[in-house]
User: Fold R-spondin-2 from Junco hyemalis.
Amino acid sequence: MQWIIFMLLLFISSMEMLTQNRWKKQASAGLLENCTGCVLCSEDNGCITCHHRLFLLIWRDGIRQYGMCVHTCPPGYFGVRGLEVNRCTKCRSPSCESCFSRDFCMKCKDKFYLYKGQCFRQCPPGTAAQPGTRECQETCEPGPWSEWSACTHESRTCGCKWGVETRVREVPDAAREEGTACPALLETRRCRMKKHCPGEKTEPKNKGKKRQKKPKTERHTGT
Assistant:
């Protein structure tokens, strides 16, 4: 009788072990699809830790939190390497596509403009969008033009018929520090110079020409 009871208990125990092994195989097969690159993986929450070269990306689906190991963080996230785990951290601004840190954006999503690490619907006052990019840059508003300089030609102010005169305007210090592209800061124009310098002796127009001698008229007397 005892032998029969012993055999029955052994049979029940073996059936339980067989059922557990079958469940483990099914669970491990399902986890392998979602646990690529994981060091530790959970059936309910996905990856918990990743290999040292990968980043752990965690997102929420309702009340559920799910983890995944990735080589590069997706748009809207930036990678932070740590001693134990590398994580993908979400950019604070929802209009940011790529960020350097949580609060400093490097590229904005469509229909937004980037200015000093922030995304805007329109460029702030005093800035303008650069051609071909969605980045705002400070506009350069130079000061007033100076008076025209003296008319010169090869550092001379007289003695030539034509010369050149120039004028300039200054750039604000803020625009110079930002390296902002500015409009023309120097203008030149052609000007007429004094042909003769003061104190210079002018040569008479007929100087150098030989005076023509009047032909002598000979008078003949009759004999």
User: Anything to note?
Assistant: The first helix runs from residue 2 to 34. Residues 18-32, 217-223 have pLDDT under 50 and may be disordered. Helices lie at 2-34, 173-178. Residues 49 and 85 are 7 Å apart (CA to CA).
